[in-house]
Structures are given as structure tokens and as C-alpha cells.
Amino acid sequence: MKTWLPRTYLFLVYALLYLPIAVLVVYSFNDSRTAYRWGGWSLRWYEALFSNHAMVQAMWNSLWLALAAATVSTLIGALTALALQRYRFRGKKALRGMLFVVMMSPEIVLAISLLALFLLIGLQLGFISLLLAHVTFCLPFVVITVAARLNGLDQRLLEAARDLGAGEFTTMRTILVPVMMPALLAGWLLGFTLSLDDVVVSTFVSGPSYEILPLRIYSMVRVGLKPEVNALGSLLLVFSLIMLVISQLILMRSKR
Amino acid sequence: MLLVLLPNLLVIGASFMTRDPSDFLSLPLTLDNYRRLMDPLYLQVFLHSLYMAAVTTVLCLLIGYPFAWALARVDKRWQTLLMFLLIVPFWTNSLVRTYAVKLLLASNGLINSALQSLGITEAPITMLYTEGAVIVGLVYLLLPFMILPLYAVFEDLRRELLLASHDLGAGRLATFFHVVLPLTLPGVIAGVLLVLLPAMGMFYVADVLGGAKNLLVGNVIKNQFLDARDWPFGAAASVLLTLAMAVLLLAHRLSRRRLGEEGET
Amino acid sequence: MKKVALAAMLAAALAGCSKQEEQVLNLYNWSEYMPQTVLDQFTEETGIKVVYTTYDSNEAMYARLKLLDESSQYDLAVPSTYYVNKMRNEGLLAPIDRSKLSGFDNIDSTLVNLDIDPGNQYSVPYLWGTTGIAVNGDAIDPATVTSWADLWKPEYQGRIMMMNDVREVFHVGLRVLGYSANSTNPEEIEAAYSKLAELMPGVRTFNSDAPRMPYLEGETDIGMIWNGEAVMGAEDLPALTYIYPQEGAIVWFDSFVIPKNAKNVEAAHKFIDFMLRPEIAAEISTDIGYATPNLPARELLDEEVKADRAVYPAAEDMVNAEVQEDVGEALLVYEKFWEMLKAGQ
Hints:
The complex is a heterotrimer.
Chain A: H1 4-27, H2 44-50, H3 53-86, H4 92-104, H5 107-120, H6 127-151, H7 155-163, H8 168-197, H9 200-205, H10 213-222, H11 227-255
Helix pairs in contact in A: 1-11, 2-11, 3-6, 3-8, 4-6, 6-8, 7-8
Chain B: H1 2-14, E1 18-20, E2 24-26, H2 32-37, H3 40-73, H4 76-87, H5 94-105, H6 110-117, H7 131-154, H8 159-167, H9 172-201, H10 203-210, H11 217-227, H12 231-264
Antiparallel strand pairs in B: 1-2
Helix pairs in contact in B: 3-7, 3-9, 5-10, 7-9, 7-10, 8-9, 11-12
Chain C: H1 2-17, E1 24-30, H2 36-46, E2 49-55, H3 58-68, E3 76-77, H4 81-89, E4 93-94, E5 124-136, E6 160-162, H5 166-176, H6 186-199, E7 203-206, H7 213-216, E8 222-226, H8 227-236, E9 240-243, E10 250-256, E11 258-259, H9 265-275, H10 278-288, H11 295-299, H12 303-306, E12 322-323, H13 331-342
Helix pairs in contact in C: 5-6, 6-13
């Protein structure tokens, strides 16, 4: 079968996806303050970035939060999807509907109602409130992704397992988890991305004790794409790419 | 689940209350907020948002479907890497990326400069602050939300199935419509949901790339909550939006069920 | 599983909190609106650590402070003009003790004791500016533009830039018709709406985040801008000119206020006092690019900046200028017409 056509297509889409990012990387070395004028090559924005401790701290906070939120919502989300798929219970429809409502409701509505809720139960605003809020809006994305995968799952596989004497736990471990893996990974990635990117909800439920990156970046960018932000984005990109290459190398070696 | 349920109840409750200049909400329960929404102004806004979101979804599907298919056919060892490669650009703040798109599209931007210096065009082409620019931005931001669920189902699609279909004499088109499409439908639906629903709310893309000239549903609700501080009205708008989407989803599900039944008999 | 994870997080978060015993000032401000060096110097001198948290709109800041009210975690905030007015009227602010501020008299007397906060009982101005007309001199001769009404000239249609803000856009409509920009009369507001509706098809974009950008992008040639943005924009586009319209520019400023339930009122006063020092105010003004209301600080600035009329207007530039005030419930009327403008009706 011909393979060049799909490969070319893949390559093209990747190229388009990375084009704006490439622009960012190039402009992070721009000596001029605005992007519409090229002022020569310079590292000044990287220096500015590293001397900005609050920004670096906010970045770590954000990464931790995204990691935690993606993991927690993947766990809960996968269980929810399984429950929706496998069991019949009262309020199943309501539960599914509710998840859509979260996805539907504009962020600002979710933000204000979550804040009201946290104030009601007397939760101090900080890491916990952020985590809870982020898990809330990541959840539907995970559930939908995992449910799509489970929908395609052959029910007979599970029946066969049961017939062969596998208990609930064994079925879970040997069949469901491997089957769900691509969807879990996809869901986790979506959650991580969403959490890292959220501004509106975070604005409302964060407290002074725990500041995260998007909030800082947001208003910096609004006043006209600050080169410092480009530098940060470039660093994050390079860091992720290096991590990727390393993990790929490890994976390839272990398989060999 | 409590986290999901309670905010929803709060919003629904708020939508029946009266605006209060100093405390956001106050008692007499009323349907006024819903009555105000019946204004043709808001219907127009809703239809326009829906149209933009729908175009975005279709484009994402057209680009994402073959992409996910191609991705699932790549050597297994590379798939995870490629998937991460897909998502890594998205770890840069979406607003930053929206501004990067702006850099490309502006009259003094990169595309126009390139075209002019190559002598292809004389004057800059107007691309920024148009509906087209908004759609480009939305597609760019939401594409992975289409691709990831699609990939999850394609990954499961066994090649033997396609070979079998081929051996049984089915042409490419027939194989696609009778084997591939039905098997990947759950992924398509998931992808459509993940793109369509957020696209309705991404007002900042419309603001940054569309010049804030069009009012989208997301803008109205945000304005009501923050600028006008009319929470009950904003809440009502949000409830109605949710209901409208639910009706659309339900209609889709019903039509699919009917089609499915016809197919089986 | 959920519970265990939560408990673990909670424990981690609590452990993280107990470390902070030193004095802390929680400052709630616009992002990138105060240089880090100034904050560091304050900490060095007083031993008070400044935690700088940000917001991106007055509306978001107001909604949060209002909701948090009782459990307020902020000691100092920096709302813009009429939000001081609004928050004061709603009793969200704590009075400022003038006896603890040695430098209050440094402030330009024309910028204190205004209607938004008579006697400055609750606010101390931080930075200020105006909203006027920007013209790209490469496309339009700046000498031909003198008033807001010039925006309606047919030759500019399609190249106009407006703020993405109800009050600022209606300021233009109201002033062109000769009304006050703080009008609460629904008929006047509607008249302004009709006038603005004529302009709408010619508006290329709305932008209240970085109003200089559409000019730099080459998308617009004439329209509204903040003076600080015009100065910043001229670094990259020297032809960008700032003009004070005859009908009157919009005057706004950002002021320090202390939320009613602030925990560290003492530190907040110390901080405001620190900000009033001429050399600190001058450093901030130079770094941020907006004008300081601090007169001795102005003397410390570069000659070039001091003489720039876009930043420090001459008396005749300000003849019809108007300060934005809270319009109370009339805001709903504005909002309604604003949505109609945007929806193209």
C-alpha cells in the first residue's frame, strides 16, 4: 500500500500546527519590543525572563497544578465513563447530562458559581480550590474521550473474560485498562492542556498564596505580545520536545 | 460529582432571580430574564455563534479525520511520540498562539510581507479582522480536540477488517462507508462535541482575530456577568444556551437512531 | 481513591502554608503595572514581603473583591477611575489615614479631591492618562484631524479603530452631540447610540487590550487610543500622532485603595507612602510609560518625557476633558445599546 500520501499529509498538518509556534520562537530573539519590526537578534528577553522570579515560580505552580488536575480528572473520568458504559443506575442520564452542562456553560459562569460554592463551604482559596475547579472542567473532556473508546469495545470480550472466571478486578486489569489506554492518554493530554491554558476560571478561584502562569501571561499578552512571553513559550516548547525525544529513546531501547 | 451538580443548580436558581445593584442577586423570583432573551437581538447572536462554531467543526473534521487515520497507521513505536508532538504546541498559552496567528495574518504581517516581497501581490490582502480569520483561529486552537478522540477509535480499527472488506469485493468507497465510517462514528461524535461546544464560547478568538466586531454568545454572557453585573440575566442566557445545545444533541441522537433502525431492517 | 488523593494534597498544602510567618502585603494589581525592582526595594527597607497578584479588568477585580468581602485576602488594590467611585459608594473600602502618609501633598492638586472620591478619603492616585485620537501620519495628515467628529468623515471609513469598552465608545458619541460623557439620561444615550451606529460599518476593529497594535499592524489609520499606548506605539511607528479632540478627551486614573476587610492595613499604608516618594514614582512612571500625578517626581524625569504633550498635556489640551464617573443603574441602558451596536442593529 502506498504510504507516502498519508505521511505527506501528516507532515503538512504538523507543519501548519507548528508554523505559529515557529513564529513565536523566532520573535523571542527579536531585539525590538513589538513584533512588527525586526530589531536584530538578541537574548535580552531570556535574561528578563530569568530575572523574573515570580514568573518562574508561577510556571512551576502551573505545571504542578496541570499534572495533578490531569491525573485526578483522568482517574475520576475513566471511572465515570466505565460506570456510564457498564452499569445501569438511577440518575445515569442526569449524570451524563450534567457533564455536558459543564462543557456548555461559559467559563465565566462556572468560575463565579465555583467561587460562590467555595466561599459557601469556607474553603481557603489556593491550590485545593484551583485543583477542584480544574478537575471539574477537565472531567467532561476525559469522559467523552474514554466513552468513545468504550463504545467501540466488543462486549463479548468482557463476557468471555467473565465466562473464563475472571473477577471484576482481573477483567479491569487485563482487558479494560489496556483497551482504554489510548483514550486515557488522549484524555490526560487534553486535561493537561486545558489546565495549563485556563484563565477565566483560575482568575476567580485562585488566591494570593498560589499564583499560576496563565494569569500572569494573560494580561501581559493583552497589552501586545510581550517578547518575554515568547521566550517563555519557546523554552517550554524546547523542554517538552527534549523530554519527548528522551522518553522515545528509552522506549525504543527497552523494546529492542 | 457534587462539584458538577452544585454550580449548575446555583446557575439555574440565579436565572430566576432579580438583579440587585449592590448584591448581584435578590429575591422576587421572576421569569423576566427569560422574557428579555426572546428579543430578536439575542436570537441573531445565537444563530451567528452557532454558524461560526458549525463551520469550525466541519473544517476540523475534514482535516482531523484523515489525519487521525494516517496517524493510526504509522508504525506503533512512533505513534505515542507523534501524539505528543501534536499536543506540545498546545502547551503554549492559547492566547499567545492566537496572537501569533495575528502576526501572520496582519496587513504588515508575515504572509503579506512574504507575498509582497515575492512580487505576487501589490497591496496587502485584508485577512485580519474578518470572519475568515476567526474561523482560522478557532480551527487552529481546537483541532487536537477533534483528532485525539478520533485517534482513540482509529487505533482500534484493525487492518484485517479493511482487507477482508476488500477481498469480499468492496471498492474503496464502499469499504469506507460500510466499514470504516460506522466503526469510527463514536469518535466522530465525541470529536464534534469537543469542538462544537467550546467553539461557541471562545469569545477571545473573535475579539482578537475578528476585531471584536461580532457579538458571540460567550461575549453576551461575559458582558452581563462582569460589565453589566446582571447575573440573573447572564445566568438565564447560559441556561438557555445549554438547553438549545441539548435539544440539538437530542435531535441528532433521535435522527441517528431512526437511521440505524432502518439500516438494520 | 479520590478522598485519599485529596487528603494528601490538603496535607501538602497545609505544610506549605505554615512556613510563612513573616509580614506579608497582598497587593492586587494590573499585571506588569509595577516594576519588580521597586517591590524588592520596599521589602528590603521594611521587611514586608509583597505578594503581587494580578487581574486583567476592573470588572473581574470588582466581582472578586465583592464576593470575597468577608474573607478578603487582599490588603491593597488598584481600581480605575469610576470603580473607586462605585466601590466607595458600596462601602467596600476602608478609609485611608492621611496622617500615615508623608508624601500626599506631592500629588498634583488638579488630580485630587475629584467627584469620584471627594477629599480622597479612600483613594490615592497611582498613575493617570487620557484617551484621545491617534492618527497614522503616513496615511492621514494629522493637522486635518482636530475632533472626535472627524472620525465620521467618509474618507476614513473602514480604517477606524475604536476601544472595546462601552463607556469609552459612548463618551465619543455623547461628546460629539454635546452631552456629558457621564450622562444618565436614556434619551441622550439613545441619541449617542444612533450617532455611533452610523460609524459602525466603517470601524475596522475594536481593541481595549493594546490599542496601539491595530495601527502597527497596518489595519487602521485613525481612531481612539490611550496616550501611553500612543507614546509606546511611536517607538515602532514614528508617524503615530496623539491628538486631544476638541470635544474633550477622556481622563482616567488608577488609584490605590484598601479593601474594607484588609488584614494588614498598616503595611498597606506603608506601601502607599513608599509609592509617594518622588524617586520611586519617577522610576515607576519611566518604566510603565504612563504619567505620574506626583509633581516632584515629574521634575526627576527626562526632559524629553516631561515635554511630551501626549503624556503631560498642556492646560489647553484639557479644556473639555471629562473624568469618567460611575453612572449607576444607567449602565444597563449603556450595555443594552452597546450590544445592539455590536450586533449591527
